[in-house]
Specification:
heterodimer; A: alpha+beta; B: alpha+beta; 5-stranded antiparallel beta sheet; about 25% strand
């Protein structure tokens, strides 16, 4: 007996009322192959089959007869395609804040998948040049792939131009590397943190396909919606009656640890520890790690 | 030196069994300004003498970094050296990308040799007119290699190529037994002594014309800066 996978054609546009509930009534036939259809209809006397495409009912007997002539009803065996899902979300959160003559970048060190923790101490921050870091949340495999490409391109830049690229150039490089895969994107949500040509902090935020924005501070990842409003409030003074902006590096460092601690309370993907890097002029990089809750 | 009708291209053998074009290419190496290399168990060093095409110009660099663990110096056509260096850099990047380790030195020399050989078996292209001295470190230790326009390559404990290199080779032959356990400083001083022996009276032998580079088992390929070259030249004078 022959087994077939027959593709179910898309349903024609439904009327408004049924469209919403259609999601729940999505008909995935249990008769996924011709063979199963046969087995289910061993006793086919009097049985009816609903031909979706022709929108009418037909005797199962008739279906078999047509099949032997080579006319298979197109909707007999809706295909349950195994979806090719190349992406996964390993999550975590990353934050970057630009200051006068310094830049802060931080990321939690947890890697997750679904409800499981894959690692409690994996860094999301990678130095690309002496004064520029990239921080990424999203899919870890794509992060590694992206990082490798960037590192190779930066080495080429160093050989060809004779010096390291500026933070601005590195930011541009990331943007067009991401856009280069516009039609099969890197599933990464990036931040670039470094020093601009005046020595002041520079932070750039991106989406998965390379939209680039220079910002005073930026957040990406699973804790974004938890952390960003706090930074808006504390740094910019949004929705505050009386605002004193943070005075210095130490206050901002404390703020960063605080926002991660808060995010860890509510976001299951943020936790374990937060790694904070301070980038200052003259290639001075300071790293610190602070504990977060581990549940 | 002109060998008559057998020297027109690489597609012609001479009756003596030589490819005269390749020999001519090796002559270009012999005419180039001198460079030498030597190694110990932990370090490999390159010392080179740079030339300035005229009084008005700067001295042309002869030492190039290929990767963190490898670099080269050359004698002959600088442009050819740059082209080979670009190829080597690219190979090292790709290897690093694919295998996450540094390109093994001998394997890269193989690739250069293969590229060079191809050019000796064609009527339409010319051989490379440059000899490279490549120093590098990998899992098998420190290395010093020479590549030739002929497509041959050789590994050495110490060697020199270019103009008046025989004088330097003589010094190196007499002293190479001391190199194996020598410190980096001693190694560089040996290199400079060998180099000095091959330099004529009227040639500049100063911080602008001398190039020193090294690579170590635990240290990346570095070309010394002018002030560092200066301090070594001062030590040499003592």
């Amino acid at each position: 007996f022959f087994f077939l996978m027959i593709r179910r054609p898309p349903r024609s546009t439904q009327s408004r009322s049924s469209a919403a509930s259609d999601v729940y009534k999505r008909q995935v036939s249990t008769q996924s192959t011709w063979g199963e259809f046969f087995l289910r209809n061993l006793n086919r006397k009097g049985r009816m089959f609903r031909d979706e495409r022709r929108d009418k009912e037909v005797a199962v007997e008739e279906v078999f007869k047509q099949a032997s002539l080579g006319n298979l009803p197109a909707t007999l065996a809706p295909v349950e395609h195994k979806q090719f899902n190349p992406y996964t979300f390993n999550a975590g959160s990353v934050v970057a804040i630009a200051g006068p003559k310094f830049c802060l970048v931080a990321g939690d060190t947890r890697l997750s998948e679904g409800y499981s923790i894959l690692s409690r101490n994996t860094s999301k921050l990678v130095p690309l040049t002496a004064d520029t870091y990239i921080a990424t949340s999203g899919m870890y495999a794509d992060f590694i792939g992206l990082q490798k490409v960037l590192k190779a391109r930066i080495t080429q830049y160093k050989f060809n131009i004779g010096r390291e690229p500026t933070t601005e150039s590195t930011a541009q490089l990331l943007s067009h590397t991401l856009y280069g895969k516009r039609f099969f994107p890197f599933y990464t949500f990036n931040l670039i943190a470094g020093l601009d040509e005046n020595g002041d902090g520079a932070v750039y935020g991106y989406d998965a396909i390379g939209t680039i924005n220079r910002l005073p501070y930026a957040v990406q990842g699973s804790g974004k919606s938890l952390i960003l409003p706090i930074l808006d409030n504390e740094i910019q003074g949004y929705n505050k009656v009386k605002h004193t902006p943070p005075q210095d590096l130490n206050q901002l460092q404390e703020l960063i640890v605080d926002v991660f601690t808060s995010a860890a309370e509510r976001d299951i993907y943020t936790g374990d520890a937060v790694e904070v890097v301070v980038i200052e002029a003259g290639g001075k990089i300071t790293t610190g790690t602070y504990k977060l809750r581990r549940d | 030196m002109i060998k008559g009708v057998y020297d027109v291209d690489c597609g012609t053998w001479s009756p003596q069994g030589k490819l005269i074009q390749v020999e001519y290419a090796m002559e270009a190496v012999k005419q180039g300004s001198i460079c030498l290399g030597l190694k110990s168990q932990e370090y490999a060093v390159l010392c080179s003498l740079k030339r300035a095409p005229s009084e008005l110009s700067s001295y042309m660099d002869k030492t190039f970094k290929v990767d963190d663990h490898m670099g080269l110096s050359m004698a002959g056509l600088t442009a050819d050296a740059r082209s080979l260096c670009k190829y080597m850099r690219n190979e090292c990047l790709n290897y690093k990308y694919n295998y996450e380790v540094a390109h093994p030195v001998e394997r890269l020399i193989f690739k250069i040799a293969e590229k060079s050989q191809k050019k000796t078996q064609s009527v339409s292209t010319r051989p490379y007119g440059v000899g490279l001295l490549v120093i590098g470190v990998d899992q098998t230790g420190t290395h010093l290699f020479e590549t030739c326009p002929s497509g041959n390559f050789y590994e050495y404990n110490a060697y020199s190529i270019g103009a008046r290199s025989q004088a330097a080779r003589t010094y190196l032959e007499n002293h190479f037994q001391k190199f194996s356990k020598a410190s980096l400083e001693r190694l560089i001083l040996h290199g400079l002594k060998a180099l000095k022996g091959a330099v004529q009276e009227e040639t500049d032998f100063n911080t602008r014309s001398v190039e020193i580079a090294f690579v170590g088992l635990k240290e990346n390929f570095t070309t010394l800066k002018e002030d560092q070259v200066d301090s070594y030249l001062k030590k040499l004078a003592d």
